Every structure is written in structure tokens, then in C-alpha cells.
């Protein structure tokens, strides 16, 4: 099968070549056909080019790994968009689970007094987070500060700012995605940023 013929093939034909013949050229055609659409969709939700590229890459890798067992009842585009939606949802859920866990620890007062070296580390993180947060868009920064520094719930932020809870979630996701990118060069993990946020009042 000549590669130059692939652009005229239907998605179904490309999937058949991929699943039945392990035709990598067919996979490449699918990749180039839908990469940009998926990337735009992911970016709209994550507001980070790096995070969007990573999640789209995961979707494409999943398609390739499942090529021989894949059963698509709708269309390839619909399958890809659904797979992307679940990947993005898992990112939202993972971040919220981390934050909920840390907040629960604080509420139950299970954290022992910080050692001097831990105090210094948290103060350093605090300063770097403040500098990075200052670069966020106004509404995104406000949501982040209300959530992490004033410890308001998503519903309370929604009520105060007059925006939906889903919008609050998107702003928080955007903020943490941006902070992770900004702080990566300093080797500060996103979980460390979350830990700083819930402990901020202790510093």
C-alpha cells in the first residue's frame, strides 16, 4: 500500500489497515488527520500547550496499543474525542484528589510541627508560587488565591465571583497547570505546590 494513497481513504479503511495489517503508515495518517483538532480541544480545557500535547499523545498511543482489539461503534473522530474527554477528566480528578487529601490532613491536625529546614523549604515555595501566580490572568489568579489562600470552597468562590462551579474548576486546573510549568525548572512538584497552598496560613 503506497503511503500517498492514504489521505483519500476513509477512517474505517485506515482502522482496518491498522488493526489487520499493523500498517504504521495508516496510523500516521490518522495521527496527522486528527492531531490538530484534538490539540485545540485539549488546550481549550487545560489552557496549557504542554499539557494539551501530552494528553493528546496519550490518546494516540492508546489507539495504537489497542488497535487489534478496538471496536468503534460510532466514528473514529467521536472515539478520539471521547477518549480525550476522559483523559482530561482524569487530570481534573487527580488534582482534586490530591488537594482533598491534603486538606483532610490539615483538618485532622495530623501534620506534626515543621522542622526548621521544612519551614525554609515552604517559605521558598511560597515566594515562588506568589511570583508565578502574579502572572496568571486576573480571574484565574483570583480563583486560585481564594481557593488556596482564603480556603474557600468551589461553591463559595462561585457565589462570590458570580461564575459557575465548572468555571471555577477550569480556572483552578489552568492555574495549577501553569504553576507546574513555571516551577518545573526549579524542580518543584505540583504536589509540593498544593502542600504549600494548604499550609500557607501557617507561615
Q: Key terms for this structure?
A:
203 residues, mainly alpha, Rna Polymerase Sigma Factor, Chain: A, Arc Repressor Mutant, subunit A, 9 helices, 0% strand, elongated, disordered C terminus
Instruction: Give the CATH superfamily of the largest domain.
Output: Winged helix-like DNA-binding domain superfamily/Winged helix DNA-binding domain
Average pLDDT, all residues: 77
The number of distinct β-strands equals 0
- The gyration radius over C-alpha positions equals 21 Å
Helix content: over 70%
Written description of the protein model:
The protein is elongated, with a radius of gyration of 21 Å. Mean pLDDT is 77; it is low at 198-203. It folds into two domains: 3-92, RNA polymerase sigma factor, region 2, helix turn helix motif (Rna Polymerase Sigma Factor, Chain: A, Orthogonal Bundle); 112-202, Winged helix-like DNA-binding domain superfamily/Winged helix DNA-binding domain (Arc Repressor Mutant, subunit A). Helices cover 73% and strands 0% of the residues. The protein contains nine helices and no strands.
In short:
This protein is mostly helical and 203 residues long. It has two domains: 3-92, Rna Polymerase Sigma Factor, Chain: A (Orthogonal Bundle); 112-202, Arc Repressor Mutant, subunit A. 73% of the residues lie in helices and 0% in strands.
Write the layout of secondary structure elements.
Layout (H helix, E strand, L loop, with lengths): L10 H11 L2 H23 L2 H17 L10 H32 L8 H18 L4 H11 L5 H8 L3 H19 L6 H10 L4
Amino acid at each position: 500500500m503506497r503511503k500517498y494513497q492514504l489521505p483519500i481513504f476513509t477512517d474505517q479503511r485506515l482502522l482496518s489497515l491498522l488493526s489487520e495489517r499493523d500498517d504504521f503508515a495508516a496510523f500516521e495518517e490518522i495521527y496527522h488527520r486528527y492531531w490538530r483538532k484534538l490539540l485545540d480541544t485539549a488546550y481549550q480545557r487545560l489552557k496549557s500547550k504542554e499539557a494539551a500535547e501530552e494528553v493528546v499523545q496519550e490518546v494516540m498511543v492508546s489507539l495504537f496499543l489497542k488497535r487489534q482489539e478496538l471496536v468503534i461503534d460510532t466514528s473514529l473522530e467521536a472515539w478520539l474525542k471521547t477518549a480525550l474527554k476522559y483523559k482530561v477528566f482524569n487530570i481534573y480528578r487527580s488534582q482534586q484528589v490530591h488537594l482533598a487529601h491534603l486538606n483532610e490532613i490539615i483538618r485532622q491536625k495530623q501534620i506534626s510541627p515543621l522542622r526548621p529546614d521544612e519551614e525554609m523549604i515552604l517559605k521558598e515555595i511560597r515566594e515562588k508560587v506568589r511570583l508565578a501566580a502574579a502572572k496568571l490572568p486576573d480571574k484565574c489568579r483570583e480563583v486560585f488565591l481564594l481557593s488556596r489562600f482564603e480556603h474557600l470552597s468551589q461553591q463559595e468562590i462561585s457565589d462570590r465571583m458570580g461564575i459557575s462551579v465548572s468555571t471555577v474548576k477550569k480556572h483552578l486546573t489552568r492555574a495549577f497547570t501553569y504553576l507546574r510549568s513555571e516551577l518545573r525548572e526549579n524542580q518543584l512538584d505540583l504536589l509540593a505546590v498544593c502542600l504549600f497552598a494548604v499550609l500557607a496560613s501557617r507561615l
